[in-house]
Amino acid sequence: MRPLLLRCALLLIVSTASAAAAIAESQHRPWPKSCAEAVARLSRELPPDERRRLAAMPEDKLILLHHGFGTHIRNSLGLWQGNRDLAFDCTKQRAAHPDEASMAIIRALWQSLQR
Fold first, then answer.
1. In which band, very low, low, confident or very high, does the pLDDT at 63 lie, cut at 50, 70 and 90?
2. For 86-98, what is the mean pLDDT?
3. Which residues, in sequence order, are CB contacts of 97 under 8 Å at separation 6+?
4. What HEC string does 17-85 produce?
5. Angstrom distance (rounded) from CA 27 to CA 89
6. Which of 8, 46, 86, 102 is the least crowded, having the fewest Cβ atoms under 10 Å away?
7. How many angstroms separate the CA atoms of 13 and 63, rounded?
8. Terminal CA-to-CA distance of the chain, rounded, Å?
9. 19 vs 66, which has greater pLDDT?
10. Is the pTM of this model over 0.90?
11. Given this model, what pLDDT does residue 95 score?
12. Rounded to an integer, what distance in angstroms lies between the CA atom of residue 45 and that of residue 71?
């Protein structure tokens, strides 16, 4: 039992450190202020095979990206750190939740890849 608890604790520490590093990295770059800027940045960062995979995904399956890719978007584009300009531009809501904004960005990126 103890080795399992130790592994779980180690995994928690590593994942927390990884998240903190991602947030720190995102704070060194200016955050995008518009959905179009966010889409352009993500499109540049995504490898071609990932862009193709996203483009081929049915729109009703985009919600499956909420936790992995969506978490990356929320952390790296400052949605959890107060990037209200981006959240508003994506949702047209003054008090937009980061989850809503990241899904709007995913959808806009997907739409841009449909062309």
1. very high
2. 93
3. 87
4. HHHHHHHHHHHCCCCCCCHHHHHHHHHHHCCHHHHHHHHHCCHHHHHHHCCHHHHHHHHHCCCCCCCHH
5. 20
6. 8
7. 28
8. 53
9. 66
10. no
11. 87
12. 15
Q: Which of 3-17, 18-32, 72-86 has the lowest mean pLDDT?
A: 3-17
* Alpha carbons 74 and 55: distance in angstroms, whole number: 21
Residue at 110: amino acid letter: W
CA distance linking residue 11 with residue 96, whole number of Å: 32
- Burial (CB count <10 Å: 0-12, 13-18, 19+), residue 26: buried
- Could you tell me which of 30, 82, 60 has the C-alpha nearest to residue 74? 82
pLDDT at 26: 47
As given in the structure block, the two tokens for residue 63 are 């919600």
Give residue for tokens 């985009």.
62
Give dist(CA 48, CA 66) in Å, integer: 20
